[in-house]
Amino acid sequence: MRKKTISSSAALATTGAASGGDGRVGYHVRPGVAWVNGKRVGDAKTVSLNSDEAAYDLSLDRISPESEPLPASWTDGSGDGGN
Question: What is the reported pTM?
Answer without folding.
Answer: 0.67
